[in-house]
Structure to design on (1105 residues):
């Protein structure tokens, strides 16, 4: 996978993850172009499209579009399920996730993504294991919080 | 309502959230999933804090208000970072996090990197985490920072705390810069294979290494780790296998031999997954499909290798593939789309593997049938993928026929699919499945689709139709009909290549010329016809109008009037072409002379504001009145056949779709089948071809020049003169191949890379680099034919006292396959100064005949120049020191080309010297300095070039 973008129906970028080195200018250009292309598509159309020399796999969940760019030999359907698994992970973590969760807890969305995908490849596909890792991190956070608070 | 809230004082984000819900947008649940919702971890997160600060920009306020608010916030953060009071970790984290948030809203952030780096060394987990996130998202290639970041990562990697190690590895994988590869490429494999590494760390390490390998393959050396990495495929933990297999796949693609052992391991792993019950793998089962991601990756890995040689392994694999195909027929275990997607993802990957092996006819046909079912599936995604996958199946000899049976479905898809990207796939598949037997049907369907096709794909469709029509043309009248239809239906999308091509073919084939003339004549009858049609019509009638002139309905005058009726609606280039057609008419049909001269003489031609049109009118008018019929007949003779070359249309399609879209075999196919069809490539039969026919017959061309000098238009001759010169230089004879060939040589004096030599058989390209007295030259020998070159040998010799010597040359492979390119490396050392260049001798057999070729290698003394900078004072002091006659060489030469400052500068730099500005008192002069490096000594060299623009010297 070369990159993943999450954007709203209004075209606002909510999360971006790039697995190939690109300049900021290039990133902005790609984002603009893709958001436009994907938003212009009708609901019943297929979830894949050719774009430059990449394949775009996208899916809409409520007000958010999840959009991945994969290489020629990559598998479209499994990428679609990568998106779905990521949504499931977010949903399980936030509890009925909505766009606002991702906006305001963007760091969590990034951490979950990093546990699930790394360098553009699936790292851990088990829902339980990913969430375990995140919860452990949260626990560490809580503990530190407590330590910080106790001296007061 | 929102403005009423004093958001900076609200306790926690809950209230705010409620209010935003009232605005009704970003709060719909993304997924409707069963399962108990976890309590939202707001209380612990930074999110709540941010909610308060950044509520405003999200609330749909005007852009200006948002920017104002952001700028205020940025100023605030900046002052906090710059302030005298040292910030504690918590505040630092808070502000860094805010910066990130602002960045993610789409604003530029140019500070805060240092604070983020500081956070990395915090021993508080959240602070470290935010620091790493900032670095990952907003990495800056500031070298000072990279060093600090690398230090922090190093500490975390050696901390033995798995959570910290993972954070550090994630950061490396996210940034993946060269500096990081340099620092960690040797460390990470150790972590990956160490026995005491935690599974989660192993997973991160594997993918981290993959990322580094992709950025800097030269730095990631697996060496001793190879076999231990391959054995990760056997790991107990499915997650480790999932992560490791991506790394192994990538490494296998680059070094297939070293990783060969992975094949049998992958097969047995796959076999275990495929045969497992849907619940065996617990959490790795996804909607009743066991380990879909891992299965896909395993099948993908196997595609890096040919079918396993070991019979048992192969048997097991074939069994797996059959099971996967069988499962596709079983009733679904769930109605959820995730279930079918995951199942079909594996199926498509298995089919890719079957196509990759291309050796099991049984499996290929089964795959084809399965895809055939998908062609009519109600899921658009599946139809799309089936069309795409079938495209590759069509190229296999075993399944080509099976694919063809679905032609009706595919044609139907082309007509009825609502999504253009699906229709595009259908068109691609039709193109791929086309052969002699169904070409007429497919071309007809594509033509009728073109009438309603989307604008975005029309041009490509036109090219495809043109190629198919040419490739499978049994009778050429069909071909001509097809292309003319193409122009009629989609004239705007017919590129020049397409109509050039039809003309090349008509000119090269006697038997179709009469038919073509008749057909274009009919097509031109239409009240509104496309300009491209006029071009083809004008050209063909100009050449072959005589073939239909016998019929009174298409008598010369009728033909002329028909063409001329379109004249005024056409653009300048078409009009120019028509004028050329008219003069040809005068030659073909003397009876039209008066009418045409009348047309040429009228003011709108002879005084046309366009120089080209005016010149043509004037010249043609004179030509027709001065030249005798003999001269006229020679000048305006029928065009000679075009030399055979690769179809330019095919080249265009390839360029459009990138390499791979048109396979090499296809290219060769068209060469073989369309051999006779293939006319000239890029030399379009446009106006310059007309001039070429003028130029190739000396005496009338002299007449023409005479006329030109008396032409009333003062500005015209210059441009036409250039045209003629161009034509002459193009027509120059190719250099004889046996003699020492140095026409490419001079071009390399000032540059290091390019094509040294090219003829019909062979192309030799050069890439060279020089440093001090050493040089290295890469020679690329490209076989331009489709036939293998046998006993290909090259040798380099240094004539006479040549001292720059070739240190080592590796012999090249004796066989060069058709279309292949081989590479040879020469190492060069300059011992003392020299003036002759070494010779390269190449011998090979092409179709039995021995070819012998000697070329001068472009190694000249200036390649060993080191540029030297010096001041004006230094330069002239040294210049004056060189007063002895043998130390000085002066030459006055006439410039061959016009002198352009930039070009000259580029040449002088290409020479290898340093160009010194503001040294010479006369700004027109160029001053250069360099040192020639030889093994024994270094010779300084100064150069002054004094151009004289008036005298062209």
């Amino acid at each position: 996978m070369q990159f993943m973008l999450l954007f709203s129906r209004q075209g606002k970028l909510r999360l971006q993850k790039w697995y190939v080195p690109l300049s900021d200018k290039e990133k902005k250009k790609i984002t603009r172009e893709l958001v436009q292309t994907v938003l212009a598509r009708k609901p019943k159309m297929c979830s894949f499209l050719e774009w430059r020399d990449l394949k775009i796999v996208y899916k809409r969940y409520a007000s958010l579009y999840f959009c991945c760019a994969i290489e020629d030999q990559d598998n479209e359907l499994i990428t679609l399920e990568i998106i779905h698994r990521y949504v499931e992970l977010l949903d399980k973590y936030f509890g009925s996730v909505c766009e606002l969760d991702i906006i305001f807890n963007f760091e969590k969305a990034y951490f979950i993504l990093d546990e699930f995908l790394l360098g553009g490849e699936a790292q851990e596909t088990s829902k339980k294991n990913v969430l375990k890792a995140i919860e452990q991190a949260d626990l560490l956070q809580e503990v530190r919080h407590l330590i910080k608070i106790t001296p007061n | 309502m929102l403005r009423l809230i004093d958001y900076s004082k609200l306790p926690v984000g809950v209230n705010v959230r409620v209010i935003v819900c009232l605005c009704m947008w970003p709060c719909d649940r993304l997924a409707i999933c069963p399962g108990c919702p976890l309590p939202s971890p707001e209380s612990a997160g930074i999110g709540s804090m941010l909610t308060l600060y950044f509520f405003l920009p999200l609330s749909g306020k005007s852009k200006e208000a948002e920017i104002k608010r952001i700028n205020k916030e940025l100023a605030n953060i900046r002052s906090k970072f710059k302030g005298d009071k040292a910030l504690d970790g918590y505040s630092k984290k808070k502000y860094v996090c805010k910066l990130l948030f602002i960045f993610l809203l789409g604003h530029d952030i140019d500070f805060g990197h240092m604070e983020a780096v500081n956070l990395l060394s915090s021993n508080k987990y959240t602070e470290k985490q935010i620091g790493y996130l900032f670095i990952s998202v907003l990495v800056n290639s500031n070298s000072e920072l990279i060093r600090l970041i690398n230090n922090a990562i190093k500490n975390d990697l050696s901390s033995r705390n798995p959570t910290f190690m993972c954070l550090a590895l994630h950061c490396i994988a996210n940034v993946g810069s060269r500096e990081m590869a340099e620092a960690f490429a040797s460390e990470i494999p150790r972590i990956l294979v160490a026995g005491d590494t935690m599974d989660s760390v192993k997973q991160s390490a594997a993918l981290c290494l993959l990322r580094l390998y992709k950025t800097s393959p030269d730095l990631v050396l697996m060496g001793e780790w190879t076999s231990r990495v391959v054995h990760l495929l056997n790991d107990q933990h499915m997650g480790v296998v999932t992560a490791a297999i991506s790394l192994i796949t990538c490494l296998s693609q680059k070094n297939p031999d070293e990783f060969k052992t992975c094949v049998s391991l992958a097969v047995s792993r796959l076999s275990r997954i495929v045969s497992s019950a849907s619940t065996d793998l617990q959490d790795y089962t996804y909607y009743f499909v066991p380990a879909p991601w891992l299965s896909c990756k395993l099948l993908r890995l196997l595609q890096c290798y040919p079918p396993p040689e070991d019979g048992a392994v192969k048997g097991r694999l074939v069994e797996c593939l059959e099971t996967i195909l069988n499962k596709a027929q079983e009733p679904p275990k769930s109605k959820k789309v995730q279930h079918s997607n995951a199942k079909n993802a594996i199926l498509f990957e298995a089919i890719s593997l079957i196509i990759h092996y291309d050796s099991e006819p049984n499996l290929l046909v089964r795959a084809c049938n399965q895809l055939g079912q998908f062609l009519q599936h109600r899921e658009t995604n599946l139809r799309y993928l089936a069309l795409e996958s079938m495209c590759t199946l069509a190229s296999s000899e075993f399944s080509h026929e099976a694919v063809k049976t679905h032609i009706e479905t595919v044609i139907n898809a082309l007509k009825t699919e609502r999504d253009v990207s699906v229709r595009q796939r259908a068109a691609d598949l039709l193109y791929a499945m086309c052969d002699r037997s169904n070409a007429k049907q497919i071309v007809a369907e594509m033509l009728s689709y073109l009438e309603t096709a989307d604008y975005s794909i029309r041009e490509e469709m036109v090219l495809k139709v043109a190629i198919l029509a040419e490739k499978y043309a049994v009778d050429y009248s069909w071909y001509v009909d097809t292309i003319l239809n193409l122009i009629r239906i989609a004239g705007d999308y017919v590129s020049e290549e397409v109509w050039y091509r039809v003309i090349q073919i008509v000119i090269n084939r006697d038997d179709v010329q009469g038919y073509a003339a008749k057909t274009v004549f009919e097509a031109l009858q239409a009240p509104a016809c496309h300009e491209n049609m006029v071009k083809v019509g004008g050209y063909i009638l100009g050449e072959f109008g005589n073939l239909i002139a016998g019929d009174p309905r298409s008598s010369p005058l009728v033909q002329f009037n028909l063409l001329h009726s379109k004249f005024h609606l056409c653009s300048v280039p078409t009009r120019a072409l028509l004028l050329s057609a008219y003069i040809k008419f005068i030659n073909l049909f003397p009876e039209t002379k008066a009418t045409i001269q009348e047309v040429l003489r009228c003011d709108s031609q002879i005084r046309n504001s366009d120089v080209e049109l005016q010149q043509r009118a004037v010249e043609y008018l004179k030509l027709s009145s001065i030249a005798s019929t003999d001269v006229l007949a020679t000048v305006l003779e029928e065009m000679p056949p075009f030399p055979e070359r690769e179809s330019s249309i095919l080249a265009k399609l390839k360029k459009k779709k990138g390499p791979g879209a048109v396979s090499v075999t296809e290219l060769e196919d068209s060469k073989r089948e369309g051999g006779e069809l293939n006319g000239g490539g890029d030399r379009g039969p446009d106006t310059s071809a007309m001039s070429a026919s003028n130029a190739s017959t000396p005496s009338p061309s002299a007449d023409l020049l005479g006329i030109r000098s008396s032409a009333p238009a003062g500005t015209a001759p210059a441009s036409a003169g250039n045209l003629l010169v161009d034509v002459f230089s193009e027509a120059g004879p190719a250099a004889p191949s046996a003699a020492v060939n140095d026409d490419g040589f001079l071009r390399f004096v000032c540059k290091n890379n390019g094509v040294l030599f090219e003829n019909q058989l062979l192309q030799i390209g050069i890439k060279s680099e020089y440093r001090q007295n050493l040089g290295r030259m890469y020679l690329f020998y490209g076989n331009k034919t489709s036939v293998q070159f046998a006993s290909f040998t090259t040798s380099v010799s240094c004539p006479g006292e040549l001292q720059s010597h070739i240190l080592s040359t590796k012999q090249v492979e004796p066989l060069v396959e058709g279309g292949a390119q081989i590479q040879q490396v020469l190492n060069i050392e300059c011992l003392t100064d020299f003036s002759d260049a070494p010779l390269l001798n190449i011998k090979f057999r092409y179709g039995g005949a021995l070819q012998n070729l000697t070329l001068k290698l472009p190694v000249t003394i200036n390649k060993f120049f080191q540029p030297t900078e010096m001041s004006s004072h230094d330069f002239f002091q040294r210049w004056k020191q060189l007063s002895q006659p043998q130390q000085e060489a002066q030459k006055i030469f006439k410039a061959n080309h016009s002198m352009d400052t930039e070009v000259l500068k580029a040449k002088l730099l290409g020479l290898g010297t340093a160009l010194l500005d503001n040294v010479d008192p006369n700004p027109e002069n160029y001053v250069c300095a360099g040192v020639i490096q030889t093994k024994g000594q270094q010779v300084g060299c100064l150069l002054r070039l004094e151009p004289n623009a008036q005298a062209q010297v």
Summary: Residues 148-152 of chain A have pLDDT under 50 and may be disordered. The first strand of chain A starts at residue 3 and ends at 8. The two ends of chain A are 48 Å apart (CA to CA).
